[in-house]
Structures are given as structure tokens and as C-alpha cells.
Design brief:
alpha/beta; seven-stranded mixed beta sheet; Rossmann fold; about 260 residues; about 25% strand; binds S-adenosylmethionine
Length: about 260
């Protein structure tokens, strides 16, 4: 009989992240990328800095992985609901949250989020656990959009999860042309739906799904050691000997959009 976890694997069609979860945090690149994402987001959303605590923002991170970005944004938020389709990633996050000094306002959930009314999301009112679901002040998602086949659908779900006049701030590497394909080694292409996100395409899509005040911009760039020759890094997917690979700079986009206020 299929377990909840195995049907989640089937739903994503992607076991790669469950397999990589235990070693995910050993890669310095993902830590640095999350720090850069936080910096870019804080620069655009001063409300995060103003009032953490009970008057702070409710943040949803979609595709949180092991919670690298959730953990560093948590001190600026009232709470962070950290959702990932890979149960293995969420297990790693849950273990980290048990450690001394870990943030206490992160709520990890192993969910392939397709419905803003999904009962696994927290309720808007804790005294009514089966009532309407919480709506968020800010939705973030980092290094995830390039894995999602139907961007229009996930953007619509995000919009449904927001309060009125609330925002998405989505970060991922840019599809800046044919070289963007080298971001992933050949052995790490499973689950890659596109080689980065495309600036103009994101602007059009976000407007199409109904966001207002859409702004998609290059926010930072990062160097990455990538395969010089397709398949050079073998199954490990990373350089294992000196001299392997070549360093390329990858621009990252920050995609912002506001849910229209509807009285
Ligand atoms: C490249 S990892 C990035 C993880 C994390 N954001 C980080 O930067 O370390 C992409 C993550 O997105 C998750 N993911 C992909 N599609 C998803 C979806 N539709 N809903 C939730 N999570 C998803 C995967 O399970 C994976 O953990």
C-alpha cells in the first residue's frame, strides 16, 4: 500500500531531493545563495525589519528544502511556514529545529502545495482548526521555480495564499542564455524543468496571473564551479579533483508582485 510519503514522491516525480537531503547543508554554495536572497529581500521589504514578534509578518516559504532561508529570515518574521514537497528535506529541517538556539517560529510541512485551502496549512484562527486557512503577508521561494513545470499554476496558488495587498518575493538563477544550462551538472538534471527563470517571461506570467506592481530584477550574481565538459563531474555531480570544471558567474533574479487589494 502506498504511504503518504511515497505518494508525495510520486506526485513530484522527483526523489532526488529526498536522496540529497542529508548532505544538502554540506554545500557552501546553497548557504551563500540563501544569504544573498535574504539580503535582497530585506532591502525591498523594510516591514520585515520593523516589527518582529506578534506584529511581525506571517511568511510562507515554498520549497524550503532544509530550511536555510527560513532559518535566517525567521528572526525578522512573526512566523515562517516552511513547506517542501520532499519529506526528506523536511525531516532534516525538523531535526535542526530541535537543536539549542534554533528559531522557534518555524513550522515545517511536507506538502506539495497546490491549494491555498489545503487543510495541512495552519488555520487562520487557532480556535477554529478546521476553519479557513492562514493567509500570508509574504511568500518567498528560493532556487525552486526552475524545478516547477507549470509556473502559472504555482504562481496562482501563491497568490491565493496571500492576504490582500501582500507580496511574493521569489528568487532563482536567471536563464541568461545557453550557458545557464551548466548551472547543474549532468548527473543533477533530474527534476530540472528549465535552466533558470527568464526575466521577461516571469514579468509576463506574474501579470497574467493577476499580480500588480510586478517587478523582476537582477539582484545579485554568484560564481559556481561547473562542468567544462558535459558529464565531467560524474555521478557525484561536483568537482572531486583539482583542476576539474570552470568557474562561471550566474545572475539571480528577484521577482516581486503584489496581490491586488479587493475590498
Ligand atoms: C534546489 S532545492 C532548493 C531548496 C532550498 N530552497 C535551498 O535553497 O536550499 C528545490 C526544493 O524545492 C522543492 N520543490 C520543488 N517543487 C516543489 C513544489 N511544487 N512544492 C514544494 N516544494 C517543491 C524540492 O523538493 C526541493 O527541496
Amino acid at each position: 500500500m502506498a504511504t503518504a510519503a511515497s505518494s508525495l514522491h510520486a506526485a513530484t516525480g522527483n526523489e532526488r531531493f529526498n536522496n540529497e537531503a542529508a548532505n544538502w547543508d554540506n554545500n557552501p554554495f546553497v548557504h551563500e545563495a540563501s544569504k544573498q536572497a535574504l539580503k535582497a529581500i530585506l532591502a525591498k521589504f523594510p516591514a520585515l525589519k520593523d516589527a518582529p514578534g506578534q506584529n511581525g509578518l506571517d511568511v510562507l516559504e515554498l520549497g524550503c528544502g532544509t530550511g536555510l532561508l527560513s532559518s535566517i529570515i525567521a528572526p525578522y518574521a512573526k512566523r515562517v511556514v516552511a513547506v517542501d514537497a520532499a519529506p526528506g528535506m523536511i525531516e532534516v529541517l525538523k531535526n535542526k529545529l530541535q537543536k539549542p538556539g534554533a528559531p522557534q517560529n518555524i513550522y515545517p510541512l511536507a506538502v506539495l502545495l497546490e491549494d491555498a485551502d489545503d487543510k495541512r496549512l495552519p488555520p487562520a484562527d487557532e480556535s477554529d482548526p478546521n476553519g479557513p486557512r492562514l493567509r500570508f503577508d509574504l511568500i518567498i521561494s528560493h532556487l525552486v521555480l526552475h524545478h516547477i513545470p507549470d509556473l502559472g499554476k504555482v504562481l496562482t496558488t501563491m497568490k491565493d495564499c496571500l492576504k490582500h495587498s501582500a507580496w511574493v518575493a521569489l528568487t532563482d538563477y536567471e536563464d541568461a542564455g545557453p550557458d545557464s544550462k551548466s548551472f547543474h551538472a549532468r548527473s543533477r538534471m533530474e527534476g530540472v524543468a528549465r535552466h533558470g527563470i527568464h526575466l521577461e517571461t516571469m514579468e509576463v506570467l506574474m501579470n497574467e496571473v493577476g499580480f500588480v506592481n510586478v517587478n523582476v530584477e537582477r539582484a545579485w550574481s554568484m560564481d559556481k564551479n561547473v562542468e567544462k565538459v558535459d558529464g565531467e563531474f560524474g555521478e557525484a555531480g561536483r568537482a572531486s579533483r583539482a583542476g576539474q570544471g570552470q568557474v562561471r558567474s550566474f545572475p539571480f533574479l528577484l521577482c516581486m508582485g503584489e496581490k491586488k487589494y479587493c475590498p
